[in-house]
Structures are given as structure tokens and as C-alpha cells.
Amino acid sequence: MTDKNILYMDTLECIKNRRSVRKFLDVPVEMEKIGMIIEAGKYAPSAGNLQNWGFIIVRDPANRKAVAESCLRQMWIASAPVVIVVCTQLEKGTKFYGLRGERLYNIQNCAAAAQNIMLAAADLGLGSCWVGAFEEEMLSRVCGIPPIARPQVVIPIGYPAEEPVAPSRHLLEKVAFLEKYGARIEDVLASGFGYRGHKVQATIGNAKDAVTRMHKKLKKQ
Q1: Is position 31 within any domain?
Q2: pLDDT for 35-87, tens place per residue?
Q3: Model's pTM, two decimal places?
Q4: Does residue 6 lie in a domain region?
Q5: Strand locations in the chain (E)
Q6: Do 147 and 180 sit in the same domain of this protein?
Q7: 41 shares its domain with 104
Q8: Structurally, how many domains does the chain consist of?
Q9: DSSP of 7-56, one letter per residue?
Q10: Beta strands at 127-128 and 149-158: parallel, antiparallel or unpaired
Q11: Closest by alpha carbon to 124, among 35, 209, 16, 53?
């Protein structure tokens, strides 16, 4: 396996193992790691390479509490040693892309950056959580966000004090379509993506069980 393949597998593992963490240890996060996390956010894709985002790093306990208050009193947020507020710079999206830039690209750009931030945090052994429920005007006052910008996502980050169970996910064949929306990918085609649908997986599992039973029977004879 080449180094490139190893990196590829590590990325997929990080994506699959990331969890939403809401309980944190009372341990500060090193500034070096915070810098690496913000750097990851900066490398997210954006429409027209606008990079029209801003990242507010909130560390002061009183400010973290105020952020938690503005997030509809989700006070667990204040227990995270670091909270990153991702904002969009409104004018850039509107200037270059009009209404679509204002209503879609501004949001998409920050969402991509937020995902990068959370994956980087997970890769560094930290927990995080996507928080989109907040009172916007209050959060803007707390973080000093001017009218030219708008908060999009609040991300508490810290060393996790819990190991959340993996949430259930839809089967691939339920969410992936071939050529047109709603055109289901058959098992034989899905296997071409290196994946087998649940029916094929069940058949393989039954076959393995049958072989195991046969071997046990032969040993007894």
C-alpha cells in the first residue's frame, strides 16, 4: 500500500469515526492545535474561491458562557475550552453572485469550512459539535460581529469526556441514485463502488455461516 493510499484510508476513518461531543474534559486545548484546526477551515473550497469566512476563537470563560446563552441556553457549550464561531462575509457573495451568492454560496462556503474544522479536531483527538441553533442578534453582540458579517455555525471544541455511540446511517442504496434522482443503484452496480447492498451482504453472511457449519460437521465425523 502506498503512502497516498494510507492517507486516503485515514481520511475515511476520520470521517466515519467523528462524533458529536457535548461533554468535555476540563483541559485546555493547545494553541498549536487551535491554529491547525483554523488552518484546516481555511483550506475548505468556496464558490469562486471567495474564502468569505471568518473564524472567531472564543476562549474566555465569561464569553463562552455568553455564547452558550445565545445558543438558546445550551449551557453545555460553555464547558468546552474553545468555541469557534464561523461567520460569513456577506458582501463578497452578493457582489460576485447576486442573490444566489447571498442565499446559497455564503452558507455553503461556511458549511464546508465548518466540516473541515470538525474533521481536523477529530484527527487531533478532540471532540466537537455542530451547533446551528442560536439567537443571531444576541450572538452577534456577544462576538462583536458587524452587520457586514453573519454567524453561521457555532463549534464547541475540547478533549472529549464521553464516547458517543455511532448514530444510525441510511443504507447507501437508499440515498445514492444512478444518473437520475430516484433511480436506485442495484446491488451489482453498487458493488462496483467497492460496496455491496444489504441484500448482497446478507447473502454473503448466510453463505459464510453455511460454510462454518459444514466445517464443524466435518470435524465431528
Answers
A1: yes
A2: 999 999 999 999 999 999 999 999 999 999 999 999 999 999 999 999 999 99
A3: 0.81
A4: no
A5: 53-58, 82-89, 127-128, 149-158
A6: no
A7: yes
A8: 2
A9: HHHHHHHHHHH--B---B-S-PPPHHHHHHHHHHHHTS--GGG---EEEE
A10: antiparallel
A11: 35
